Structures are given as C-alpha cells and as structure tokens.
Amino acid sequence: MPIYLFENKKTLEVKEVVQPMNDEHTYSENGVAWQRIYTVPQAGIDTKIDPWSSKSFVEKTRDKGTLGSLFDRAKELGLKRADKNGGVDPLAAASKQKREDSINMAKKQNNEAIKAHNQKLRKQKQR
Fold it and tell me: By the 8 A CB rule, do 50 and 56 touch?
C-alpha cells in the first residue's frame, strides 16, 4: 500500500500514513485534521537490469540510493542468476574461487618467506 505524508499545521510535525490507494486520503489525530503533503511519485520506469551485465548494473544503480540498497540490488541479481543455474550464482562462485586462490597464494608466499627466514637463522647459528 502507498505511503502518504500528512502535516500538523500547528506543530509542523509530519507523519507517514499507509493507506489504500482508493481510500480518501485524510488523517486526523486528537480531533485535529492534518494536511496532506503532495510529493513527486517514486515510481521507476526502467527497473529491469540484466543480471549478467556488470555494465547494466553500474548504469542502472549509479547515483541511486545508499550503499545498502546497492548491496540489496546486487543480491537480487545474484539470486536471479542462481535460479537460472541450478541454485548456484556462477559470478559469485567465480568471485569466491578467485578470493580463495588469492588467499592460498598469499599463504604459500608467507610459508616460503618463513621457511627462507628460518633457514637463514639456522645458517647464522651455525657460524
């Protein structure tokens, strides 16, 4: 149901009121009638995003909403990709694999550096 804004003209307090579209849009509290505030409709015309296109995602989400809403939209698209791929989002799976490969490479490099350091220490002790 749509949300309508009403203002108390005495206190200037504004409230959001959920009302069915076909109802008369009036609101009163403690016998005081509040005045409706008219705003620009928040309807989207072009809301379809190709879940496979990073370019489409960037174009459609640029300068729109918060970081949280961006994450929510990305999750929705991931769910659409997963629905078409047996429950697995191939982009998320590839990203996860890339991250795991990067972590494993860093671990390997760290272990090699530790091993080289320990060998160097052993040589120094032998002198």
Answer: yes
Question: CA 102 from chain center: how many Å?
Answer: 24
97 pLDDT higher than 90: yes
Strand partners, 35: 7
* Domain enclosing residue 23, as ranges: 3-37
Whole-model pTM: value is 0.45
Same domain, yes or no: 31 and 8: yes
> Each residue of 19-28: b (16+ CB within 10 Å) or e?
eeeeeeeebe
61, 70 contact by CB (below 8 A): yes
